[in-house]
Amino acid sequence: MKVTISRKAHFNAAHRLYRKDWTFEQNDAIFGKCNNPNFHGHNYELIVSVTGEIDPETGYVMDVKFLSDIIKEDVENQFDHKNLNLDVPEFQDLNPTAENIVVVIWNKIRKRIKSEFELEVVLYETPRNFVTYRGE
């Protein structure tokens, strides 16, 4: 019997979508206003879900406090009120699209979650635009 637990979190961050190897015109054609050289920001919402068997001793799949601590340490502390392009090492050479951000977050959290658990991360860039990654 598998159950999924989820924890919501949020962080605020700036970024610019562009490729260093493209001209401004190429970047502008693909990324539009998200290519603003002065960056732009989002109030990101995050849902991290862990699926696994219920521990018969604790009744938990995983202690949600433990999951909350992981998210705080590995995501919120590292991304909140940061410029993703300039302040977060993972994006020095990786375009910080929502798709790339969710994969980076998933990889950070995956390192801290036991392998027998399934992990899913949903990242909302806006209330209507979101991405999901399950490590597939």
From TrEMBL:
Belongs to the PTPS family. QueD subfamily. It catalyses: 7,8-dihydroneopterin 3'-triphosphate + H2O = 6-carboxy-5,6,7,8-tetrahydropterin + triphosphate + acetaldehyde + 2 H(+). GO terms for molecular function: 6-carboxytetrahydropterin synthase activity; metal ion binding. Pathway: Purine metabolism; 7-cyano-7-deazaguanine biosynthesis. Its cofactor is Zn(2+). InterPro entries: 6-PTP_synth/QueD, 6-PTP_synth/QueD_sf. GO terms for biological process: tRNA queuosine(34) biosynthetic process. Keywords: Lyase, Metal-binding, Queuosine biosynthesis, Zinc. The active site is at C34, H81, E125. It comes from Flavobacterium glaciei. Zn(2+) binds at H15, H40, H42. This is 6-carboxy-5,6,7,8-tetrahydropterin synthase. It is an enzyme of class 4 (lyase). The keyword Lyase applies. Pfam families: PTPS (PF01242). Binds 1 zinc ion per subunit. Its EC number is 4.-.-.-.
